[in-house]
Amino acid sequence: MLKGKRILLVVSGGIAAFKVPDLIRRLAERGVSVRCAMTKAAEQFVTPLTLAALSGEKVSADLFSLTDEAEMGHIELSRDADLVVVAPATANILARMAQGLADDMATTLLLATDKPVLVAPAMNVRMWHHPATQRNIEQLKADGVAFIGPNEGEMACGEYGPGRMAEPLEIVAAIEMQFGKPLPRHLTLVQPRPANNGVAPLKQDLKGKRAIVTSGPTHEPIDPVRYIANRSSGKQGHAIAAALAARGADVTLVTGPVSLPDPAGVKTVHVEAARDMFSACFLDLPVDIFVAAAAVADWRVAVEAPQKMKKSGDLPPVLKLAENPDILRAISTTDAKRRPALVVGFAAETENVVAHAQKKLGSKGCDWILANDVSEGTQTFGGDSNAVHLVTANAVEDWPRMSKSEVAARLAERIAAAFNDQSKKNLKKGS
Ligand SMILES: Cc1cc2nc3c(=O)[nH]c(=O)nc-3n(C[C@H](O)[C@H](O)[C@H](O)COP(=O)(O)O)c2cc1C
User: Fold this and answer.
1) Which residue out of 11, 44, 90, 136 has the highest number of ligand 1 atoms within 8 Å of its CB and is therefore the one to mutate?
2) % of the chain residues with pLDDT over 90
3) DSSP per-residue string spanning 91-138
């Protein structure tokens, strides 16, 4: 989808500029060539040398540089790319863009370009809400500029609200949309919560709590067309995300490739490989609740072939595997400041289900495990029902077979009860 595309990345002077190297890396992984332009203020947050080294391209910062202008003039540069992305976009650069100012290299490129422009704003929540900023945004939207984010969350300045730059993977998804791939719906707007059709609404007892739920399989690339995967459908993880949201939690669903719609009322981040899922989860910390329902591949191919592997007539290739990061263990054992108060893992076993789950509880450092039997004949993978055991440090509860949405609703109810008990100690005991 993005292979061979050229992006002009304009970096302005916000604290979120520290995420730009990650964004460049993720674009480069997808075969995109990135050329950066920076404002003077941006150089205070990330060095031109870092961006040049990561992009493999010269960084444009000085409008009046004789050498730069001789090599590629600013007009040519502004049109050379397929897309212009401004990330992070400060309140200041949005104001300058809205006014049509061209008082440095970055804004001159933005005024001279004839290519689509995508903007990822990042600023303090009050700067975002300021009528002047909102006016500028409306103007830019009317001018055809696309926006991704900002996200809501805790800011570097300690305040809370909208203003955090969209995460690099979300910006990548928004870039893909510019080239024709439908944008995952969460990115422009969190889906409204579904109407309850006359049914009494659930108690909003998780209001104010933040949760991450992982779901689905991961795809571990072998070469550009082949991958290692598993049979997880994502039905259980998606149902849990929806059930937590229905009780008022602010939920991020990090999902591998599945053929399910994004659940309503949930921010959904789409990833492919285990390493992407790992980063997406950590980028969303801190949260109160973490539910690891994804069937994350334990191994990936150590070295992904850059081109499709061909039959050569000799012996078949040997795939050397490398271990993937262990997301559940990493989240469970992360520093106390970021560790969620409640970490729930899943154990998919084909034999000695409860015994394996109890062992996993200890080895991963999580608080609860939902263990399910995925042996042949149970149809747990891909099916609509599940028979699980809730394993905590002190107890094992056997739940009867029920639909995956009922499992999700029951888990959400248990989680809400544990939080309403207030004490983290009780969370850990599962009481
Ligand atoms: C530590 C620090 C962090 C800042 N972070 C932001 C930010 O996230 N968003 C923003 O709009 N301005 C931020 N600013 C203010 C901008 O750097 C300032 O408005 C600057 O003039 C922006 O210039 P530019 O838009 O040309 O890059 C920050 C300033 C400082 C000192």
Assistant:
1) 90
2) 57
3) HHHHHHHHHT---SHHHHHHHH--S-EEEEE---HHHHHSHHHHHHHH
For 35-85, the pLDDT digits (tens) are 999 999 999 999 999 999 999 999 998 888 877 776 777 888 888 899 999
Domain 6-183 matching CATH 3.40.50.1950: the answer reads yes
How far is ligand 1, taken at its centre, from the CA of residue 14, in Å?
A: 4
Ligand 1 pocket, residue 91 CB under 6 Å: yes
CA of 106, closest atom in ligand 1 = 26
Rounded to the nearest angstrom, the distance between the alpha carbon of 50 and the centre of ligand 1 is 19
The Cα 275–Cα 294 span in angstroms is 13
116-143: pLDDT as tens digits: 899 999 999 899 989 999 999 989 888 8
> What is the CATH number that goes with domain 210-429?
3.40.50.10300
42 lines ligand 1 (CB under 6 A): yes
Nearest to 240 by CA among 209, 268, 215, 221: 215
At 237-279, the pLDDT tens digits run: 999 999 999 999 999 999 999 988 888 788 888 889 999 999 8
Domain ranges of the chain: 6-183, 210-429
Residue 368 or residue 313, greater confidence: 368
Q: Which two tokens stand for residue 214?
A: 């992982």
